[in-house]
TrEMBL record:
GO process terms (BP): negative regulation of oxidative phosphorylation; respiratory electron transport chain
GO cellular component, one term: mitochondrion
InterPro entries: ETFRF1
Highest taxon listed in the record's lineage: Eukaryota
Protein name listed in UniProt: Complex 1 LYR protein domain-containing protein
Amino acid sequence: DGRSILFFLNAFWRNRNETDPEKIKTLIAKGDFIVKELETLYYLRKYRTLKQRYYQ
């Protein structure tokens, strides 16, 4: 989806001038959380599709 790519590009662009190491660590941790969340949503969608296809 093009909107999600723009969302992440804008997130990097908004924080491009950040120099505080603690703030950068916080932003990286937030990014890691978002990656895990997206992986979970993808897995859930895949699971629901397989369940619908084979168990109903």
